C-alpha cells in the first residue's frame, strides 16, 4: 500500500539546517530539472564555504532556469494513499502535529526569554540552552579569545554565511504564494493557489468525489497551519536573537545569532517531540 | 429604578450565552472600553499600527507607511459606501414624518388591498420542492390574491432571490427603487419562503426596513405549509375568533440579573401599560382586553405553566402571548442544537452555575401535540428565540473573527412548531438578545417599541405593521444616530464615552435582529362586537289633546276674517296635529355605544377566559439582593467574579450572568491573540514533559567586556556585515511589501473554484506561465464587512453541482479564517524584524 508523502519544494533548506523542524514535510529543492542546485549540493556549515560559494548556491537556485520556465515558488505536495480512511488519518495526524509544534514554539520562546547571560559559565553540552549559550559566549569572547587571525575571521564568516542562507530561505517563505497539490492513490485531485491577500483559486479534477474534496480541504488546512508555524518560527528566531544579543551585549548579535537561535528552536522542538513520543510509546 | 437593579447595568459587557451543556457562559466578559476601541474606527489591526510607528523611524520604508495609510483610507471609503445606501434608507425612515414606509397615496398599509402582498422563493430551492410548497400554500395565496388584486406577486424563477444577493441588488434587478415602498413596484407585505441558508437573515433585515417582511420555514414538511395556510384563511374568514386576551410569561431565575431586569423593567411595565385602555401618549386600545397579570417568578413562570399557555390548557391559552426569558444555546454542531436552540429557559432552572436539565427549558417538542394554537400570535424575548445564524454576528464585529456557532443558519424550532399547530406568527430575536432592547445606559426603561407593537397588534393591525412602527423604527433611529456618531468620532474622539458607544452599537445590532416568523399580514382574529339590532326605543305614553274645533268661515261677504281666528294647523308632522313630532331613532354613533346599549352575543368558537392567577408580589429590594446572592456557590477565589457579574450592564438572555468563567487570557483584541488562545486550547493532551535535567554550570573567569566596536568590523568583515544587514533588510522589505499588498487587497477576499479535465496539465501551465485550461464553476467575493457576493456561471451544462457548491462554501469559510490568522502573524514578524534593524549596531 502506497505511503503518504508530504513534500515541500522551493524552500531550499540545506541538509545542515536539517529537515523540516515541524517534522511534517520532506524538503525538496525542486521537482523540476530547471533548478541546477539541489539540496545536497548546497555547502554545509561544516565545510569552509566562502562568500562566493554561498552566492553561487543562491544564484543557482534563482537563476538557473530553462528558457520559458519561471521560479516555482513554494509547492506543497500531498500524496495520499488510495484508502480514504488512511489518508484522512494521515492528514489529521499531521495537522495535529502542526498545531502541537506551534504550541512547542511557545515553549521555545519562553525558554529563550528565560535564558540568562549573566556570569560566564560553561555547561553541559547536551541541552539546547547549553549549546546556544556556548555559541553566544564564543561570539562574545571571540574578540579576546582569538587574535585577529584567520580562525576568528573564518568563524565570523561562517556565521554570516549561515545567517544569510537562512534569511534567504526565510525570504522565500514570504516571497511566494502557496500552491497546494493533492493526489489520492496516485490520482490528482486538486490544485489550490493561495496568494498573499488570502484569495483562493481551487481547481478540481473533473469527476472528483466529495471524499477526495474533503481530503484536499484538509490538505490546505495542513499547509496553512504549517506555513503559519514556519512564520511563527521565524518570528521566534528573530525576537530571540535580538533579545539574546542585548542580554549578551553583543552589538549586531541579533544578526549573528540567527543561525544559533534557529538551531536552538529546532532542537527544542525535536526534544519536546521526543519527550511526547516516549510518553506515548506503548509499554 | 432600584439601586440594586441599576447596579446590574454598570460594569462589563456580558458577552455571553448560557451553554446548555455546562450551564456556564460561553464567552468571557468584555469591557465597554475594549468594545468601544474596536468599534471606533475602521478596523486597523494593532500590529499594523505598531508597524507603521516603527516604519516611521526608518526613512527608507516610508512608502510602506503610505501604503498602509492608503489601505486604511480605502477601508474607510469602502465601509462608508457600503453603509451609505443602507443607512440612507434608515435615516429616511427615522426622519420621515409619515407613519408608514409606503408612498403617499398608497392608502392605509394595514389593508393588503392598498399595499399588496407577495411571496419570495429562493432560486436555489429545488423546483419540485418549490412546487409542492406552492401547492400547499395555495389557500393562502388565493386569499392574498383576492385581497391584493394586481398588487399580488410571487417571486420565483427569474425573479426569485439569488444566493448571496444583497437587498439593493435584488431590488435593482427587479426594477424596484429604494426608499418608500411603492406597491406597484413590489408589494409592501413580503413573505420569504425558505430557510435562512437559502434566503439569509441579512437580506431579511435589510428588506424589512422599508417593508413588512416575514419568513416561513418548515423545511420539507409540506403538510406544515398546508396547515399554516389554512390557519391564516380560517383566521381571516372569521372561522376562528379569539377572545381578546393577552398573557405574559417572565421567569426570574434565582441569582440571575438578566431575568430580574427583564421581568421588572420590561414585562411588568408592559403589563401595566397594556392594562390601561387609553393611557396618555400611547395608542388607545379600540377594544377592552383581558390583560392577564404576568406569570412571573417562583411558582409561576414554570415549564408546566408555559405549556399550559401554549395550548396545554385551552382555558389559559391567550390570543397574544409575550415571554421574556433566557434562550438556550448549544455548542456548534451539538446534536440538540438544531432542535432546541432558542428554547425558553423557565423558572425551573435554579440559576447560574447549576446544570441545565431538559425539564428546565421549553422546546418545540414540549408543545402538546393536541394543542390548538390557531390564531395565536406570540412574542419571544430570548436569545436565538427566532433563529440562529451560522456565523457569530456579534463576534465578527467586535473581534473581526467569524466564529461558527452553528452548522448552518436555521430557524428556531419552537416558533416553527407553534405555527405548525395553528399560531399565525411569532416575533423573536435572531442571535443574541441584549438588555439594551429595553434599558438605556442610564438605567431608564425603554419599552416603547414593545408597547407600540403590542398595542398596534391588539387593535387588529397586521403583525408586519406592528413591528414596522416599533422595532423597525427603533432600528432606523439607532442606526442613523450611530452612523452620525461614528462619523463624529473620527474628528472628535471624545464625542462619546466608551460606554455610550458600546451601548449604541449593541443596541443598534440588537434592534435589527427582531424578525417575524409567519405571514407579515397576519393579524389577531379577535372577537368583534355584533352590529346594533334594529330596535326602536320605547319613548313611553304620549298624551294626545283634543283638537280645537274648526272655525267656520263667515258667510257674510262683507265681514272680514276675525283676528282671533285660530291659526291653521302646522304641516309636515306624522303625528296628530299639535303633538310634538316623534324623533327618529338615531343610529349608534359608535360601536362602543351600541355595545353599551345592548348586550352583544358572542359568536361561536370563543375560548373562555383563563382564570386570573394569584397576583405575584415582586421582590422588594432587600429580597432581590437576597435572591441574587442565594443559591450561588461562592468560593473564595470567585467572589470577585460574582461581584463583577452583578455589575454587568449588558445582559444577554441566553444564560445567567452569575459567575462567568474568567479567561486566562484577556478577550482577544487581535486575530493573533485569538489564534494563540485557540491554538493553546486545541493542543492535544500532551503529557507533562519529563523533567529536563538542569544544566550544571561551573563558574569560569569572567570574560572581558565585548569590544566597543563590532567584532566583525574589527576583523575587517564590514562587507559581510553590511551584506547580511542588507539581506535582512531585503527580507523585511519583502515582508512589508507582501504585507502591504495583502493589506491593499484586504477589502475583498475572492475564492474561485475551477474544474479541469487534467490537473497535471494545469500544474505545468502554472509552472511555465502558460494559459490554464479550466472552467470557472463558482466565485465568491467576501467584502470587508463580511457581505458575500456569490457568482455562479449561468451556462453550466451539468447544472449546479451540489457537492462542488458545498466544498466551495467550505473553502470560502476556510479562506476567511486563514487570511486573518496569516496577516496577523505576518505583521508580528515584520514588527520583530524591524526591531532588529532598528536596534542594530
What global shape of chain A is seen? elongated
The counted number of beta strands of chain B is: 19
- Supply the helix-strand structural class of chain B: alpha/beta
Number of helices of chain B: 26
Give the uncertain stretches of chain B in residue-range form: 41-48, 54-61, 396-400, 534-547, 549-715
How would you sum up this structure, described in words?
The complex is a heterodimer of chains A (283) and B (841). Chain A has 283 residues and is of the alpha/beta class. Helix content of chain A is 54%, strand content 13%. Chain A is built from 7 helices and 7 strands, in the order ββαβαβααβββααα. Chain A has helices spanning 51-63, 84-114, 128-145, 150-175, 210-247, 253-256, 258-280, and strands at residues 5-9, 26-28, 74-80, 121-122, 178-184, 187-194, 200-205. In chain A, strands 2-1-3-5-6-7 form a 6-stranded mixed beta sheet, covered by helices on one side. In chain A, a hairpin with a 2-residue loop joins strand 5 and strand 6. In chain A, helix 5 crosses helix 7. Helix content of chain B is 40%, strand content 10%. Chain B is built from 26 helices and 19 strands. In chain B, the strands form 4 sheets. In chain B, strands 1, 2, 3, 4, 5, 6, 7, 8, 11, 14 and 15 form an 11-stranded mixed beta sheet that branches. The longest helix of chain B has 38 residues, at 802-839. Chain B is globular. The model of chain B is unreliable at 41-48, 54-61, 396-400, 534-547 and 549-715 (pLDDT under 50). The interface between A and B is large, with 96 and 96 residues.
What is the gist of this entry?
The complex is a heterodimer of chains A (283) and B (841). Chain A is built from 7 helices and 7 strands; from the N terminus they run ββαβαβααβββααα.
Topology:
The complex is a heterodimer of chains A (283) and B (841).
Chain A: E1 5-9, E2 26-28, H1 51-63, E3 74-80, H2 84-114, E4 121-122, H3 128-145, H4 150-175, E5 178-184, E6 187-194, E7 200-205, H5 210-247, H6 253-256, H7 258-280
Parallel strand pairs in A: 1-2, 3-5
Antiparallel strand pairs in A: 1-3, 5-6, 6-7
Chain B: H1 3-9, H2 32-40, H3 46-56, H4 62-95, H5 112-115, E1 117-120, H6 127-136, H7 138-148, E2 152-155, H8 167-173, E3 189-193, H9 201-210, E4 212-216, H10 222-237, E5 245-250, H11 257-274, E6 290-291, E7 295-296, H12 303-312, E8 320-324, H13 337-340, E9 344-345, E10 361-362, E11 377-381, E12 387-388, H14 393-398, E13 410-411, H15 413-420, E14 425-429, H16 448-458, H17 463-491, H18 498-512, E15 514-518, H19 591-597, H20 621-629, H21 639-646, H22 671-682, E16 698-699, H23 711-714, H24 718-744, E17 748-756, H25 759-767, E18 775-783, E19 788-791, H26 802-839
Parallel strand pairs in B: 1-2, 1-3, 3-4, 4-15, 5-6, 5-7, 5-8, 8-11, 11-14
Antiparallel strand pairs in B: 9-10, 12-13, 14-15, 17-18, 18-19
Helix pairs in contact in B: 2-18, 3-4, 3-26, 4-17, 4-24, 6-10, 7-10, 16-17, 17-18, 24-26
